[in-house]
Predict the structure of Solute carrier family 12 member 9.
Amino acid sequence: MTERTPLLHYRLSTSVNESEQRSPPAGQVPERHPGSPRQRSTHQRQQPKKLSTFFGVVIPTLLSMFSVVVFLRIGFVVGQSGLYQAIAMFLVAYFIICMTVLSVCAISTNGALDAGGAYYMISRALGPEFGGSIGIMFFLANVCGSALYVLGLVEAIVGTFGVPEDGTGATSPYQVLPSGYWWSLLYGTAVALLCLLVCLVGAHIYAKATFIIFLVVMFVLGTIFVSFFAVWPHTIILPRSATHNPAVNGTGPVVPTTANFTGFKLDTLLGNLWADYTVDYTTETMMTFATVFAVMFNGCTGIMAGSNMSGDLKSPSSSIPRGTITAVIFTFIIYNLLSVLVACSCDRVLLQRDYSFLRDINIWHPFVTIGVYSSTLSAAMSNLIGASRILYALARDDLFGKVLSPAKKTSQSGNPWVSVLISWFLVQLVLFSGKLNTIASIVTIFFLLVYAAVDLACLALEWASAPNFRPTFRYFTWHTCVLGIVGCAVMMFLINAIYASASIAFMLLLLLLIHYLSPTSSWGYISQALIFHQVRKYLLMLDVRKDHVKFWRPQVLLMVSNPRSSVGLITFINDIKKSGLYVLGHVQLGDLNTLPSDPLQSQYDSWLSLVDHLNIKSFVNLTLADSVRHGVQHLLFISGLGGMRPNTLVLGFYDNCLPKDKLVDPSMSTSQSTDPSGLSQELEQQPPLFHFAPLRRAIDRQDYGEFGDGKVLGSQEYVAIIADAMKMLKNVVLARYFNNFDRTQVLSPPSSSPGKGAVYVDVWPVNLLRPDSCSYVDTCSLFLLQLACILNMVRAWKKATLRLFLCVEEGRSVRGSEEKLGQLLKELRIKARIYPVPWDQQVALHWQRQGKWGKKQQSQTPDTIKEETKPRPDEEEEENDEDYVNSFPSNTMRLSDDYLSAVNKLILDQARPPPAVRFLYLPRPPADTHRYATYLHQLELLTRDLGPTLLIHGVTPVITTDL
């Protein structure tokens, strides 16, 4: 491995080391996950993840980032650019890759990460279009990378054992192999066949040898460090290719034939501090800062090796960030230490004229050769393995239809042998090029494009602002994603502008092809979330068929009778919408047939002025109906367009609280209260914001709405609205005691308060009207947790603390229930404090009322409720558990006021210090409409004097643990 080894072998070899990212886990063949989350969880149970952070992330990443670079490239970088610029290059290069590392860590900690690495992350985050196009390019990069390493290994072997082609004769007794293009192709084919046999027999052979290869590389690296101190200064004969004088007729400067290893000397260090760019003796081209930086940067790639082992890690969410960052820091330290040691002990001539000088100054020369051979061969095999697994994953995902269907075939052990054969065939075709120059640039650019796509995926998820994008790794922002994209793009064009442009065009062509030809996937489409968040004019692009739970967000219809008393509720719901659709709805009672014109048209200006005045992001939707119930039905049916339709109805609570005017102009308040007869004239003089009707002066048992014509909404109709919304599969939120809610005051409590300025949000995710059911994992409970978490994600509410109250009974395992709930919160990435609350006394009050019948009955249908006036224990029916938890069965109808008052007191007693807002579970209204008044009465007793409270009922899944 001597003089004839070209710089290209050193230059762009590690860029292909991403193959090591693809190395399969020890003892098994990685397979693509099945489609559904339930199938994936079953698959993961069948093949448990077992790799630790060190073996699954640190070792693959270190091997990917080191490889032959650390042996053959350090001298080139320091010799051409000097120590100062070399360190600066490492700082810039590692800054670029660290931006991508942050994106990888963020995506990998946002839910369950399956096997597949970068392809899986990009495809599941950006959708099939980006995933498929990047997957094809990743596959081609691994194919070319495998060929690159095979050619590099062949040239290294020929350089050491081959007979020189110039006919000068062998200078070593080991030079016995014939040289030439066809001989090199033959050697390369033999190496590729060896890699093929390993992949066909089983990928576990290479996986088990990974640790041994790592030990070899670390041992060789250790001998290099020792050699700087143990080897005496001596003179080294430069390679013949480096001593060749390109000047014509010998008129050029004399090129030295020897150089010195001086050991640690100050003069040597001073001579290597500054740049001295010369002609590269292997390519005979003049070096510049840009060309040297491009060569050096390839040694910094390979950062996603750990993330590609995601399917086989014990804890991917913690292992990938820790392992990747550890490997990056370690390689950065090693590169800089080697640069300093080289600059202190080697002549500039030696660094510029002999890129294999580390072998010549080693305590035993073959050590470096062994390190180069082992790392290069392992990289070639793992690139082939990686390419076959990517092709198999693309075939399994059916993004290209029948074109890749043969690649789905596997052996009985699960080895995708057809994909291996296809990958090997393509590697063999690339070997016919016989040159590293062309392959190396393409490989590096393809990998940089993949890194840029990972940054783009993280940027899209961050800008989409989806509630379910809350990675536990928080040391990233959209700025780091942009810097990563820009850095990768700059490096692509710095290496080769033509190849970079062609690769981007090829990616866009694949993207369009997949977009129009591939079937609809169930991964979720980030494009839908981005369109929703960014612009309203693209509403037609929103497709409800592509909705996915991980991009769910609240789309709220808030019914407002009179904004004068609803300012607090309007501003609070604006916080909880999480960049979703927000519609202020209002029902005007009347019949258009009896009116000369639409009375709503003149009210829009006032409502729009209200939106501007309160500085909220909301639409306004007004309707005319003969009743409030019909009006709410109209708004639920017609509000929104396309994929932007309300999924949550918010109503004020039906109680006796007298509303207070929060929009009154202080200069007009006195005259309004003392001279009601002049009110209409004053309204005409006020700006549009104050053109709303005055509030009622007496208690009308109606906080939702008395309209301008004096009609009042009754309790029966109020509960019917709730029932209608649930029939329409809308989530329902009832807001009580928000008439005096002041957001600024709540979020900035005085330091002298009992909580010393702390803000709390209390969540009771159990149906308190069902003391015989303590389920915390039904749809409604998870909806409560999601809304509370969304509120906590808002900038103004980030400092608020979520308090989750766990109702427990004596005799049950309190600790076990608390740990189970804590594990659920961990999986959902929700940070909250859990407080167990004993409520045996309250439950006892309930069972005293129910008697023996209540203890025996587990469920009862609404029809039985109508037929019975007294409980009959001989009749018993079974219900579905989900319906049972969310229903309002007969024993709930029999709840006593004592029990409800006791539960209300229990909630108040736990509020030390009092929370800013409470989230309570709202059960379904009873099927028997005659029970509506009882239902409303029970809700009133339950929430009496609790302060700002939301009674919430969710009907649709809104949360996921998948990526």
